[in-house]
Amino acid sequence: MKVAIIDLGTNTFHLLIAEINGKEPKILYKTNIPVRLGEDITKGNRIIPIAFERGITCLQEFRKTITQYGVYKIKAVATSGVRSAKNGEDFVNSAKELAAITIDIIDGDEEANYIYEGVKWSGAITETSLIMDIGGGSTEFILCNPKQLIWKKSYNIGAARLMQAFFKSDPINEADQLMITNHLNEQLKDLIAICRIHQPQVLIGSAGAFETFDAMINKELAITTANLDYEAYKILSLTLMNANHEERAQMKGLIPLRVDMIVMATLLINFVLEKLYIKKITLSTYDLKMGVLSLECKA
């Protein structure tokens, strides 16, 4: 059986097509498109017309590819960018009408669960760990160990959302950094409290920005997992924070979509590392869409 998985993120739409025979699927095709559905979403909490159109056009192209591969089962999930928008249901209806794709708007708890399933499948969880998935609209945290998921929560502190609210200087100045830190202190109180009880030793980054850090530090793309040297990460984080847009745009391994949002991702990661005294960082390239595929294989 062939299945198509579509992950409609706030920044990027992902398409993965796989053939399921038993428990180990064969990946036939995958792509991602920087749709930027969440462009200016914080202003009116709506998907603006140009972003709405980009999203539908992307899904129409995905539909063509899905048809070419002879896929009849589609699992499409929408996250923060759609679920938080006042016209999110309108987008879902238009996708069904214009692209023949039925979208499930999942809540933060479901999103975190899919991410956990994907990361677990990668083999990255070898000790008590905190999984972190930085999206455009939301960021998910999952506390776990090799045996079980302990705690999970989704927060509306995605990179695009933070950038639209707080990124007023470039390079980002101390005042803007302090505003973000204060915001994170307020938003993440329960995360800090639960982690101080269970004391995770590793921060596992789920794809996205962590793949960018991997490309910039290790100079190659990991297949499933990779270790990110802590000291190398700290040096890179300072470089990114002290650079302006033009300087970041010239850095190898930094894709155009993340040239500015990587600053927000860096601030988020630094906050977590410092608050929780974590010194080990691991990348899992398996994320939400792989979690969806994992559960489809078990169905």
Strands, helices and their partners?
Blueprint: E1 2-8, E2 13-19, E3 26-33, H1 41-44, H2 49-68, E4 73-78, H3 80-83, H4 88-99, E5 103-105, H5 108-122, E6 129-134, E7 139-144, E8 149-155, H6 159-166, H7 174-187, H8 189-198, E9 202-206, H9 209-218, E10 225-228, H10 230-242, H11 245-249, H12 261-276, E11 280-284, H13 288-298
Parallel strand pairs: 1-4, 4-5, 6-9, 9-11
Antiparallel strand pairs: 1-2, 2-3, 6-7, 7-8, 10-11
Give descriptors for this structure.
299 residues; 6-stranded mixed sheet; globular; 21% strand; single chain
Describe the structure.
With 299 residues, the chain is α/β, with parallel strands linked by helices. 47% of the residues lie in helices and 21% in strands. It has 13 helices and 11 strands. It has helices at 41-44, 49-68, 80-83, 88-99, 108-122, 159-166, 174-187, 189-198, 209-218, 230-242, 245-249, 261-276, 288-298; strands spanning 2-8, 13-19, 26-33, 73-78, 103-105, 129-134, 139-144, 149-155, 202-206, 225-228, 280-284. The strands form 2 sheets. The chain has a 6-stranded mixed beta sheet, sandwiched between helices. The protein has a 5-stranded mixed beta sheet with strand order 3-2-1-4-5, sandwiched between helices. α2 (49-68) runs parallel beside α4, α5 (108-122) crosses α13 and α6 (159-166) crosses α12. The mean pLDDT is 95.
